Known about the structure:
The protein is built from 10 helices and 10 strands. The chain is an alpha/beta fold. The site of magnesium ion has 3 residues, from helix 3.
Amino acid sequence: MSSNTLFLAADAPLAAHAAAAASPRGAAAFGFDGIHKTYRSTDGQAVTALQDVSFHAAPGEFLTVVGPSGCGKSTLLRILAGIAQATSGTVSVGGKPSTGPSREIGVVFQAPVLLPWRTVLENTLVPAQVQRRDMAVARRRALDYLSMVGLKGFEGKYPRELSGGMQQRVGIARALVNDPGLLLMDEPFGALDAMTRETMNLELLRIKAQSGATVMLVTHSIPEAVFLGDRVVVMSPRPGRVTQIVQVDLPAQRTLDMINTDAFGAYVSGIRGNLNASGGLD
Ligand code: ADP
Ligand code: MG
């Protein structure tokens, strides 16, 4: 029996929710309300990165956030992750005000930043060590998640022995190791070639369905945002504001051939038009 199954068996009310697979706490809702963020640069200049950003996600939803480079996507994700502070406004996770990093939240960054002297399994276990979890349980879960991301058999390898796509998979398994109810991803596939990126997008949807977590993924690729998102949050250039939230009514089971359909093209050109209008596609 996998550790995921063990968690479900121990948590009967959760087992009734078939969609919530791995997370013992279940998928977490989140919300931004009136978020402003101003950075002060070393020369004393104020840079407004985010201006009055408000939106909410339901438990289990996959939200993508798309906007031009420098519009504040990473800032927004870091505020939700609890690793940066908003200048004003509130953030909630699981219905409670967010107060800092939490094991409820897993984060995947653009570069996987693996420790070169640690094996794949040891890298995956880092957040469990930081959170002082039961390491025997965490190890079983790490092995489950490595298998889920397609790395069964690579547990003892070192990062230098893996391709870029495989390293990013380790980053995803590592983000999942504490069974987060919320998974945050900051342009996770930006450094990958186009074909690997398509494969990883499909894999991510499968992993998302299996883990049951709510996901917020930020990207500057409009097709990626439409392909992955239940809803797409569109941001303006800096200072980042939400200009549009698009409900993507494509079949829940996304397949790559959908990218060539008129419906998919209509979503992409609609969002591109919106970004053009706000000056985001200069
Ligand atoms: P994105 O991820 O959309 O490219 P970021 O959130 O990284 O955007 O940055 C938004 C804006 O805030 C940019 O203009 C960036 O230069 C500025 N910025 C980000 N981090 C800092 C920081 N630590 N200090 C000062 N300015 C910052
Ligand atoms: Mg960024």
